[in-house]
Amino acid sequence: DLKNPTNCLNSIIYIDIICILFLVITKMTTNNSLDSDIIFRRTTLIVRDIEESLNLYQKCLGMESIYDQVYTHGEKTIRLIFLKTVDEHIGVIGLVDYAYDDPNAEVKQKPIKREGFTPQNMVLVFNTNDLDSRWDAITKMDSIEIIQEPTLTEYPSYNGQDVIRVNVSKFYDPDGYLVELNHIVSGMDKG
C-alpha cells in the first residue's frame, strides 16, 4: 500500500539499491584496463634455455601458460611464451628464445652476468602465500643461484605510519635475472 509512508519509503530505498547495483555492475563490466591510455602489460625475458626457464616460472612459481608459439623470423626459429599468475593482460611475463632450434647459437654462449642490484638490472618480484614449498622447489634447481634465503624484513607502509613485514628471498634465475619471492606477513591486507 503506497499510502503508507513506511511502504513508500521502503519502495524508494529498494529502487535506489537496484539502480546502484545496476550502475556498479555496468561499471565493472565496461571498465577494461586495456582501454586505458597506457598500461604496463608484460616484461619479456630473453632466455638461453626456455625449458629450464619454464621449470622455474611454471613448475616452481606456479605461473600458467597463456601463449606458447614457435615461429620463424628470417632464418631464426623463435619460441615465445606468455605466463600469468592471475590476470591475462597485466603482470604477464614473456619468455623468448631467439635461437630455439640452435642450442649452440652464439647468443647462448655469452656469459651470464650476475651483477646484483645495480643500474640496468631489474628485479622480478613475486608474492606468495606458500613460500616454504615454492622455496624448497626453487632450491632444488641446479640452474638457480641463491642470493638470500627467506629473511624477515620490515618496510615502511605506504602511509609511512605503519610497518609492512615481509619474508624476502632473492635468487638469480637460470639466465641471471634477479627474482624476489616474498611472503607478506603483516602490514598490507594482513593485519
Brief summary:
The chain is α/β, with parallel strands linked by helices. The protein is built from four helices and eight strands.
Tally of separate helices? 4
Strand order of the largest sheet: 1-4-3-2
Low-confidence regions: 6-15, 21-30
Query: What is the overall shape?
Result: globular
How much of the sequence lies in strands comes to: 25-35%
- Order of helical and strand elements: HEHEEEHEHEEE
| Major β-sheet profile | 4 strands, mixed
Question: Which structural class is indicated by helix and strand composition?
Answer: alpha/beta
The overall average pLDDT, rounded, is 84
Question: Explain this structure to me?
Answer:
- This protein has helices at residues 5-30, 50-60, 106-109, 131-139; strands spanning 42-46, 64-73, 76-84, 92-97, 123-127, 145-156, 163-172, 178-186.
- The protein starts with a helix and ends in a 5-residue tail after the last strand.
- The strands form two sheets. Strands 1-4-3-2 form a four-stranded mixed beta sheet, with helices on one face. The protein has a four-stranded mixed beta sheet with strand order 5-8-7-6, with helices on one face.
- Residues 6-15 and 21-30 have low confidence and may be disordered.
- It is an alpha/beta fold and 191 residues long.
- The protein contains four helices and eight strands, in the order αβαβββαβαβββ.
- Helices cover 26% and strands 35% of the residues.
